């Protein structure tokens, strides 16, 4: 069936609800897994960073393969939809076990987390890649994709707030390792809700069938690599994902070791996501008026400025730090809306150029890059902690040296701000606009 230019609100909301699953899995491990390893299992920061990074690095290899497989899936329910259900259920089950390591010694517990996180990452690849590929096949309209992404990012922002604020609250309310176990099951239920909602909500969408080109995966990746604008956009997004990963990994450390206030992690997440929930439609309107590239540039500058202001965390009142994080949230909303709306544009131009729909390969490469950035973030933050002399423990009740506190602040603020500024070097080279995309679709 051909894709429709306009989508019903039910389909937009249904598709966007998949962000409940991606938001929960993208947020909670980045927020909670590193502290779980260092402050509950007593694993050193360097080893913990490796455990967090390795499964995500596996995804970098797996995502393009998942895209290629989903490109070739033929099913009466839609070319991508079956993967949402299959992989999504596996992801929820794996996540429910991730934080449930039994007490069996540090080495065995570390292996438990590594194996379960690897299983979760594998399932996530086969959910996320088809999910991200769907917009290019659901509509051929430049502006309809922006509206579709607006729903997705709004639901994503709500999920980040729900999962990011409730996960540490659940852990703290129950306490100890049991708190992590209960939190893991609660987040698994949230993931399952998103999976089922996305599968059911896209049931009435009309999809253009994928048309995978000839040749193997390597040939497809080589062709994708020749897409200049996609390459610049992807590089910018990956560098920003690295910045986001650093900030996400640092939230719990900043809250407990620097701010030292009960519930500070939850407050930080509310400050981060609250503005995003309110301003996502505004970013969509800005994109329509000024263009996606200019909107992306403006939101990136705001995100970087907020991160830089957070560098005052050791001396400024907590309220000022919360305001700085809220400014980050304002920019982050735009930094999600625009690149995710620009990705289908790049795929559409490629389809016109080559006569072949490779949306799955495009999104496989895209999600691999995003995964790499988000995986490197906690790893880089863990390295910063190790350089600062951070002390791991099994109960979290350790006085950190001054150098470790400085490392936490720098890893949460200055480093992400510098990375965000660096990403703009690639964004400025991106050249696709509405006229080019519409011309490609019309052709």
- Total DSSP helices: 16
Number of domains: 1
Q: Choose one word for the global shape.
A: globular
Give the name of the CATH superfamily: MFS general substrate transporter like domains
Describe the structure.
By secondary structure, this protein is mainly alpha-helical. Helices cover about 80% and strands about 0% of the residues. It contains 16 helices and no strands. The chain has helices at about 10-15, 20-40, 45-70, 80-100, 105-140, 140-175, 175-200, 215-225, 230-260, 265-290, 290-310, 320-355, 360-385, 400-410, 415-425, 435-440. The protein is globular, with a radius of gyration of 21 Å.
Outline of the structure:
The chain has 443 residues and is mostly helical. 80% of the residues lie in helices and 0% in strands. It is built from 16 helices and no strands.
Defining traits:
Growth Hormone, Chain: A, 16 helices, mainly alpha, globular
Layout of helices and strands, plus pairs?
Layout: H1 9-16, H2 18-39, H3 45-71, H4 81-98, H5 106-138, H6 142-174, H7 176-201, H8 217-225, H9 228-259, H10 264-290, H11 292-309, H12 318-354, H13 359-387, H14 402-412, H15 414-427, H16 434-442
Helix pairs in contact: 1-6, 1-7, 2-3, 2-5, 2-6, 2-7, 2-9, 3-5, 3-13, 4-5, 4-7, 5-12, 5-13, 6-7, 6-10, 6-12, 9-10, 9-12, 9-13, 9-14, 9-15, 10-11, 10-12, 11-12, 11-15, 12-13, 12-16, 13-14
């Amino acid at each position: 069936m051909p894709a429709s230019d306009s989508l019903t609100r039910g389909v937009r909301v249904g598709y966007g609800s998949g962000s409940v699953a991606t938001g929960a899995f993208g947020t909670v491990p980045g927020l909670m897994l590193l502290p779980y390893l260092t402050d509950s299992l007593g694993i050193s920061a360097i080893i913990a960073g490796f455990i967090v990074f390795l499964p995500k690095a596996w995804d970098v290899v797996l995502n393009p393969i998942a895209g290629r497989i989903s490109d070739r899936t033929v099913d009466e329910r839609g070319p991508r939809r079956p993967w949402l259900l299959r992989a999504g259920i596996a992801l929820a089950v794996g996540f429910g076990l991730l934080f449930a390591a039994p007490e069996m010694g540090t080495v065995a517990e570390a292996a438990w987390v590594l194996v379960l996180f690897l299983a979760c990452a594998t399932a996530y690849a086969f959910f996320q890649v088809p999910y991200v590929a769907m917009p290019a096949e659901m509509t051929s309209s430049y502006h309809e994709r922006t509206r579709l992404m607006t729903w997705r990012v709004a639901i994503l922002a709500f999920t980040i707030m729900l999962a990011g604020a409730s996960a540490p609250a659940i852990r703290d309310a129950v306490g100890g390792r049991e708190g992590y176990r209960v939190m893991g099951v609660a987040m698994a239920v949230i993931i399952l809700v998103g999976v089922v909602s996305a599968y059911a909500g896209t049931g009435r969408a009309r999809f253009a069938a994928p048309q995978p080109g000839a040749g193997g995966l390597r040939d497809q990746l080589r062709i994708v690599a020749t897409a200049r604008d996609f390459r610049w956009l992807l590089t910018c997004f990956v560098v920003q994902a690295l910045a986001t990963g650093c900030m996400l990994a640092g939230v719990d450390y900043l809250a407990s070791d620097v701010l030292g206030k009960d519930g500070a992690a939850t407050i930080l997440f509310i400050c981060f996501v609250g503005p995003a929930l309110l301003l996502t439609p505004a970013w969509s309107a800005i994109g329509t008026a000024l263009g996606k590239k200019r909107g992306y540039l403006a939101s990136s500058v705001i995100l970087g400025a907020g991160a830089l202001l957070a560098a005052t965390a050791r001396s400024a009142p907590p309220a000022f730090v919360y305001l700085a994080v809220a400014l980050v949230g304002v920019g982050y909303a735009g930094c999600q809306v625009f690149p995710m709306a620009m990705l289908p544009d790049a795929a559409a131009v490629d389809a016109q150029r080559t006569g072949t729909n490779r949306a799955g390969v495009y999104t496989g490469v895209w999600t691999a890059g995003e995964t790499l950035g988000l995986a490197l973030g906690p790893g880089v933050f863990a390295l910063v902690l190790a350089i600062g002399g951070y002390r791991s423990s099994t109960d979290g009740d350790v006085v950190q040296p001054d150098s470790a506190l400085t490392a936490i602040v720098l890893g949460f603020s200055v480093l992400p701000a510098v990375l965000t500024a660096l990403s703009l070097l690639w964004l400025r080279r991106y050249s696709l606009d509405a006229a080019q995309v519409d011309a490609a679709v019309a052709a």
